[in-house]
Amino acid sequence: MMKEVRETTLPIVKMAKENEEFRHVIWTGDNTQLVLMAIPAGGEIGGEVHQGHDQLLYFVEGEGEATIGETKVSVQAGDVSIVPSGVFHNFRNTGSVMLKLYTTYCPPEHAPGTEHETKDQADADE
């Protein structure tokens, strides 16, 4: 398990590819938060709406399906999904390996240093 970092330059793609936790908050500022995520094969983030928080998700490994509002699209390494505040969204892993990504929340969504090894832990914490 990593702690929240205070560096200002990070090897984020490498960190995301090495991450095995469902959610790991690695940096939190006053207006933005950086989080690593790893979604197991067949898993999903879970449908949700963030009021007052924009979210960008940057995919670095695996394949999935993004549902943002009424739109469903495939996602893969190199893609970014943009979720405006107040819009329903969900991301599913449709591949056979972990779907790995990093995401930013503006403003922060989770407590600094939050770590959830699994989605079940994340759900229980929220």
Automatic annotation (TrEMBL):
This is Cupin domain-containing protein. Residues 36-103 form the Cupin type-2 domain. SUPFAM superfamilies: RmlC-like cupins (SSF51182). Pfam families: Cupin_2. InterPro entries: Cupin_2, Flavonoid_dioxygenase-like, RmlC-like_jellyroll, RmlC_Cupin_sf. It comes from the Bacteria.
